From TrEMBL:
<protein>
    <recommendedName>
        <fullName>Phosphomethylpyrimidine synthase</fullName>
        <ecNumber>4.1.99.17</ecNumber>
    </recommendedName>
</protein>
<feature type="binding site">
    <location>
        <position position="163"/>
    </location>
    <ligand>
        <name>substrate</name>
    </ligand>
</feature>
<feature type="binding site">
    <location>
        <position position="98"/>
    </location>
    <ligand>
        <name>substrate</name>
    </ligand>
</feature>
<dbReference type="GO" id="GO:0051539">
    <property type="term" value="F:4 iron, 4 sulfur cluster binding"/>
</dbReference>
<comment type="function">
    <text>Catalyzes the synthesis of the hydroxymethylpyrimidine phosphate (HMP-P) moiety of thiamine from aminoimidazole ribotide (AIR) in a radical S-adenosyl-L-methionine (SAM)-dependent reaction.</text>
</comment>
<feature type="binding site">
    <location>
        <position position="412"/>
    </location>
    <ligand>
        <name>[4Fe-4S] cluster</name>
    </ligand>
</feature>
<keyword id="KW-0862">Zinc</keyword>
<feature type="binding site">
    <location>
        <position position="333"/>
    </location>
    <ligand>
        <name>Zn(2+)</name>
    </ligand>
</feature>
<feature type="binding site">
    <location>
        <position position="269"/>
    </location>
    <ligand>
        <name>Zn(2+)</name>
    </ligand>
</feature>
<keyword id="KW-0411">Iron-sulfur</keyword>
<keyword id="KW-0456">Lyase</keyword>
<dbReference type="InterPro" id="IPR038521">
    <property type="entry name" value="ThiC/Bza_core_dom"/>
</dbReference>
<dbReference type="InterPro" id="IPR037509">
    <property type="entry name" value="ThiC"/>
</dbReference>
<dbReference type="Pfam" id="PF01964">
    <property type="entry name" value="ThiC_Rad_SAM"/>
</dbReference>
<comment type="similarity">
    <text>Belongs to the ThiC family.</text>
</comment>
<comment type="pathway">
    <text>Cofactor biosynthesis; thiamine diphosphate biosynthesis.</text>
</comment>
<feature type="binding site">
    <location>
        <position position="265"/>
    </location>
    <ligand>
        <name>substrate</name>
    </ligand>
</feature>
Length: 435
């Protein structure tokens, strides 16, 4: 039997090698994963041209995955630095890398990624079109927009963000219901501007069937972009966001009719108390398709700390049904992240993902925490460092303020509750004062 996409295989009852590998990582039977993929509730982004891919599945019933955004910009063109960040992200356990390059030889960089990087590779072809064609935005033709999508598919990209939901109808609703921060999605703002200047329908919406044919041919997972994702708390859950989401729900069904795998992109900025309802609406409207969130950032006031505002929202979102977290770094809203920012962003995102996995009862998720707690109880510092999400930082902190008593730490010293409880329960005398 032959198949085109992972979804096509799953629907024919075929367990692909990618399903076997991904299911093993989840600790679930491959047949169970095949079932989720057939229903569209999980995806394995795996372009047939991406030969070195180490596949992972994404779905709300699976471990929460994280994505790291990288790539060159006009103000930051160092390709070697970006490749270094890619290696750093893979070593730190990021399952996915999105190449958002918007300067220089973007194709060479993209091809290098799909030839050498084992992580899932995602792109946003809209950005690349602007760089690739070297001409004013309004002069890019519908055919050229579609050609870029095909080029990315040929280059082995596993998933693509396509801002297809901002069609004429959504754009009209957006203009009639003004918001505080308009459209903050980079791709969304580009395609909205193109529509306004040319008077034409969104080419990705108009020619959606052609996009689906490309995705089916190469097995590219469609990441349906949310041009109207809220860019501030005041815009969360407004008419534009919900209008676009309804369109994405319809487009999900059409993709599934062609066996194209789909994930849905989501907010954005959102008050903490709206996140759960938002995740439920998405799951209902998009029939359980995996939800990919950028944050959500739960407050707008923390530039420099937005890895924290995003991790708070991401943990809640993932515990309520989101499957895939796009990392946010401390540099968000300020500049392109450097290596240190990338590290902090990945760690914050991994903490959010792990916290959500515990809350949603992913098999074995809390074993790591129990192992850490056992090491803490035993005051086994080497084991604690080994289990840390960031061993280097933990070790550095302890080294910076060494305790008088080796087995405690400088926080409580002789008053170490852990040590004193271990001793008293072992029948020893605990003096504290003169020890
Ligand atoms: S000294 Fe205090 S903080 Fe440090 S290990 Fe003991 S109880 Fe924990």
């Amino acid at each position: 039997m032959t198949y085109t996409t992972q979804m096509h295989a799953a629907r024919q009852g075929i367990i692909t090698p990618e399903m076997e590998i991904a299911a093993k990582k989840e600790g679930i039977p491959a047949e169970e994963l095949r079932h989720y993929i057939a229903e569209g509730k999980a995806v394995i982004p795996a372009n047939k041209q991406h030969q070195c891919l180490n596949p992972n599945a994404i779905g709300s019933m699976l471990k929460t995955k994280i994505n790291v955004n990288l790539g060159t910009s006009r103000d930051w063109k160092d390709i070697d630095m970006e490749l270094h960040k890619v290696r750093q992200a893979v070593d730190m356990g990021a399952e996915s890398i999105m190449d958002l390059s918007s300067y220089g030889d973007t194709r060479a960089f993209r091809q290098k990624l799909t030839q050498e990087c084992p992580a899932i590779i995602g792109t946003v072809p809209i950005y690349d079109a602007v760089v690739y064609y070297h001409k004013p935005l309004k002069d890019i033709t519908s055919e050229e927009w579609l050609d870029i999508v095909e080029m990315h598919a040929k280059d082995g990209v596993d998933f693509m963000t396509i801002h297809v939901g901002i069609n004429k109808n959504t754009a009209r609703r957006f203009k009639e219901n003004r918001r505080l921060t308009n459209i903050v999605s980079r791709g969304g703002s580009i395609i909205f501007a193109w529509q306004e200047m040319t008077g034409q329908e969104n080419p990705f919406y108009k020619h959606y069937d052609r996009i689906l044919d490309i995705c089916r041919k190469y097995d590219v997972t469609l990441s349906l972009g949310d041009a109207c994702r809220p860019g501030c708390l005041a815009d969360a859950g407004d008419i534009s966001q919900i209008e676009e989401l309804v369109t994405l729900g319809e487009l999900t069904r059409r993709a599934w009719e062609k066996d194209v795998q789909v994930i849905i992109e989501g907010p954005g900025h959102m008050p903490l108390n709206q996140i759960e309802a938002n995740m439920k609406i998405q799951q209902t409207v998009c029939q359980g398709a995996p939800f990919y969130v950028l944050g959500p950032l739960v407050t707008d006031i923390a530039p420099g700390y937005d890895h924290i505002t995003a991790a708070i929202g991401g943990a809640i979102a993932a515990s309520c049904g989101a499957s895939f977290l796009c990392y946010v770094t401390p540099a968000e809203h300020l500049r392109l992240p450097d290596e240190k920012d990338v590290k902090e962003g990945i760690i914050a995102s991994k903490i959010a993902a792990h916290a959500a996995d515990i809350a949603k009862g992913v098999k074995g998720a809390s074993d790591w925490d129990s192992a850490m707690s056992t090491a803490r109880k035993n005051l086994d510092w080497e084991e604690m460092f080994r289990l840390c999400i960031d061993p280097e930082k933990a070790r550095q902190y302890r080294e910076e303020a060494k305790p008088e008593k080796e087995d405690t730490c400088s926080m409580c010293g002789n008053f170490c509750a852990v040590k004193n409880m271990n001793r008293i329960l072992d029948g020893e005398i605990v003096n504290i004062y003169d020890e």
